[in-house]
Design goal:
about 350 residues, alpha+beta, BirA Bifunctional Protein, domain 2, seven-stranded mixed β-sheet, two-stranded antiparallel ribbon, 12 helices, about 20% strand, elongated, binds 3,4-dihydroxyphenylalanine, aa-tRNA-synth_II
Amino acid sequence: MSDDLEILRQDVLSELAGAADMRAWDAVRVGTLGKSGRLTALLKALGKMEPEERKVRGVALNRLRDDLTRAIESRGQALEAAALEARLVAERVDVTLPPPAQVQGAIHPISRAMEEMTAIFGAMGFSVAEGPDIETDWHNFSALNTPAHHPARTDHDTFYLPPVPGLDVARVLRTQTSGVQIRTMLSQKPPFRVICPGRTYRADHDATHSPMFHQCEGLVVGKGVTLGHLKGCLIEFLRVFFDKPDLPVRFRSSYFPFTEPSMEVDIGWSRRTGEIGGGEDWLEVLGSGMVHARVLANCGLDPREWQGFAFGMGIERLAMLKNGIPDLRSFYESDIRWLRHYGSDPLAPALLHEGV
Ligand code: DAH
């Protein structure tokens, strides 16, 4: 091979070796094999040569082109692999990293209680349904058999939203999660079992009432659903939630517009010591009943074909009882010391088989 070709080979090989990234590599490639690359220029010059000379030179040039093409390709692959390797190292997420020695933060007892309720009812085949905090007056009251001027409406100290011009529906901050019953019956085909944990609002503020609080609604609709199912379901829930297999539970007849019959549910406790399950007193913990035929009909379900039971409970109330939290207002004060005391481990989710 003539000297100039050997020099070109050495030049290109050393430039390739020195190319540290794909951009430098591409500059060598274009400078060699590109339209005005050095090798391309030599190949073009062949045309002007005498046939004899061209033959010899042509063979050498072709060999050089093959060699350099291969060298450029393999350097390109090596650089690409190195770039990928560097990215993998730089972007590595070590999922095996241990948590910090001291876990930061804690799960708020309201979130925890919701997780526990979801775990318990989840094991009974319930799924979680959701609805909006800003609810129509119809979903919050009328469809639940509480029409305008019904006395039960005044119990709720409702926050009404200002009317929207052109919008012919009254809107409220939902006073109860019961509207989700309506939304579920309208959007799903029975049979179903749902719970709806969520925020609710009433214009009420003192040591035992907050303008914003949480409820967990429950609804079961199916064929042949009876009061016996309601009782079994709620007794089981309360005993697991409070971790007391023999917790006394009492059903007391009551009134809600959307259920018939309606029952309030009490658990045994001691007024003197505050102990759940012990003592001679009763404490009301939730409301329940068989879904009123009119509510089923409002949602297009034939009450002769479908039956259901429903219940609603205050999440703060249950969390206070379970954790011995004395003051409702403390839930919302964002006091980090309080949260450290009553909060739970964020790395230990509510699992039924561990006892919630
Ligand atoms: N919505 C009721 C309240 O806020 C609670 C309730 C009672 C819900 C009975 C129900 C029920 O679904 O059946 O006081």
